[in-house]
Design brief:
The protein is α+β, with helices and mostly antiparallel strands. It has one domain. It has eight helices and six strands. The strands form two sheets. A four-stranded antiparallel β-sheet has the order 1-4-3-2. A hairpin with a 5-residue loop joins strand 5 and strand 6. Helix 1 packs antiparallel against helix 2. The longest helix has 19 residues. The two termini are about 30 Å apart. The relative contact order is 0.17.
Length: about 230
């Protein structure tokens, strides 16, 4: 079955997989792998298609090439809703709730050795809890970590997921984000719930996207007056 779009339809299918198979993956002791797999596409694809190109968190990248699908213009209501979400304090956004347990964010002094040997992670405290960070900061961090393979785990069985994101201003230096396993699962569900509410009203030219990447273009005549 073809995708109507990759902003809402594609993540909805990822959400269905999460709902139907997470328990089975947990029984097979593959739940962390399963969550990474779902997040790598279900989180990053809508982000990439709707985001405004940035060099860093504050500086727009004027030389960046827009996504070829041009979804920021095709789905302006979804674009604006995503932009509003990214500007919010993460813990006051739709992606957070109190059942997700503490998340921790900060700067690593070194990545030598296993994660349990990193001083900042062995001494997690309330002062390093996610508090004032924006949703933009958190989403960018997770996206960058997944895209560059900077993912780690802690515990046996695994209890925490560790995401690292390299600082754009200091090569070889990283910020960390530590998320309890169950908290990350809940976060993904909150993410998909947010995506499911997006208004994906299109611009006048619409298209159906097939698995082979071809687009069947058609005109929405409601934007152009009576058909001739």
């Amino acid at each position: 079955m073809q995708y109507e779009n990759y902003i809402k339809d594609f993540p909805a299918r990822c959400s269905t997989l999460l709902d139907k198979f997470e328990d089975q993956a947990r029984l097979l002791e593959l739940d962390v792998t399963f969550l990474f797999s779902i997040a790598s596409v279900g989180l990053t694809i809508p982000i990439e298609r709707l985001k405004k190109p940035y060099i860093n968190e504050k500086e727009p990248d004027k030389n960046s090439t827009p996504h070829p699908a041009n979804d920021r213009d095709n789905y302006p209501n979804a674009r604006d809703a995503m932009q509003n979400l990214r500007h919010k304090n993460f813990k006051r956004s739709e992606l957070w709730d109190t059942t997700m347990q503490p998340w921790y964010y900060g700067r690593l002094s070194s990545t030598l050795g296993p994660p349990d040997a990193w001083p900042e992670l062995s001494e997690l405290s309330k002062t390093s809890e996610v508090h004032s960070e924006t949703t933009d900061c958190i989403l960018n961090h997770i996206r960058n970590s997944l895209a560059h393979g900077n993912i780690y785990t802690s515990g046996n069985p695994i209890k925490k997921i560790i995401f690292l994101s390299e600082l754009s201003t200091e090569k070889g230096k990283f910020n960390f984000l530590v998320i309890p396993l169950l908290g990350f699962s809940k976060f993904l569900r909150n993410w998909f719930a947010f995506i499911n509410k997006l208004d994906i009203s299109q611009s006048p030219v619409q298209g159906v996207i097939y698995d082979d990447g071809q687009r069947d273009m058609r005109i929405d005549l409601s934007h152009h007056g009576k058909a001739q």
